[in-house]
Specification:
34% of the residues lie in helices and 22% in strands. It has one domain: Rossmann fold, CATH 3.40.50.150. By secondary structure, the chain is of the alpha/beta class. Strands 3-2-1-4-5-7-6 form a 7-stranded mixed beta sheet, sandwiched between helices. Helix 1 packs parallel to helix 4 and helix 2 runs parallel beside helix 3. It is globular. Bound molecules: S-adenosylmethionine. S-adenosylmethionine (SAM) binds next to helix 1, helix 2, helix 3 and helix 5.
């Protein structure tokens, strides 16, 4: 008797998936465009002492922060070692003062002290991390510190089965800017605002929301 076996896609974790993508990741300008827009949208009055780039990948947001914010220090964390290898290779030219501390680690929770970060960046990655990441960012940020993250727009988000299984279960992919803003507000941030980003690249629409928000001055009771 011939038994029909259903094809089950191989289990994939983000480290394995992004290690496999690392060599060609920077060929696609989409992520760089999103990361730079996030950094440009921050409303800072003085250069930040500490910027944290969560799920930095090949470092596009970390390098944008170096260029545009003149921070004293950047901590950039990712779980995929080959993505970090690419970032370190670029840092030879893009971070000659060695201001970025590249760390191979899970993004949540981050091994950083409470209330020290001026800025948290998370470009094109929150959907892998889930809502717990927002609470960790709130913990790390000083009162009045700013977060900037992007998240795909639901209408354009059609992950493959392998990719879909890496997406955090308890985070709703937003359909509009108001829903994107609510992700930050519901986590406890204030003064949240969102814009739609539609970088022209590739063969499919990949609109995303860019969200900026502020850590409150006093912890919520
Ligand atoms: C689409 S890439 C974005 C990278 C970069 N932020 C950018 O804008 O190009 C998603 C990144 O999230 C990382 N990632 C996914 N889950 C992670 C986790 N739990 N901890 C740390 N990094 C994670 C992946 O390794 C990958 O580098």
């Amino acid at each position: 008797m011939i038994r029909m076996l259903r094809r089950i896609p191989p289990v994939q974790d983000p480290a394995t998936a992004f290690d496999a993508a690392a060599d060609t990741y920077d060929d696609d300008p989409h992520h760089g465009t999103i990361a730079e827009a996030l950094v440009r949208g921050l409303r800072l009055t003085i250069p930040p002492a500490l910027v944290v780039d969560v799920a930095t990948g090949t470092g596009v947001a970390a390098f944008a922060a170096l260029r545009l914010l003149a921070p004293e220090r950047v901590v950039a964390v990712d779980i995929a070692s080959r993505m970090l290898d690419r970032a370190r290779a670029k840092a030879v030219h893009e971070d000659t003062a060695c201001r970025v501390d590249w760390r191979l680690a899970p993004a949540v929770p981050l091994d950083l002290r409470d209330g020290r970060a001026d800025v948290v960046l998370c470009a094109s990655s929150l959907h892998f991390l889930g809502a717990a990441a927002l609470h960790d960012w709130l913990r790390m940020l000083r009162p009045g510190g700013q977060v900037a993250f992007s998240i795909p727009m639901a209408d354009d988000f059609h992950p493959s089965p392998e990719f879909g299984r890496m997406v955090a279960a308890h985070l709703t992919i937003p359909s509009d800017a108001a829903a994107a803003t609510r992700i930050a507000i519901e986590a406890g941030f204030v003064a949240a605002r969102a814009e739609t980003a539609a970088p022209a690249s590739g063969d499919r629409p990949r609109r995303a929301f860019l969200v900026w928000a502020t850590a409150p001055n006093a912890p919520r009771l």
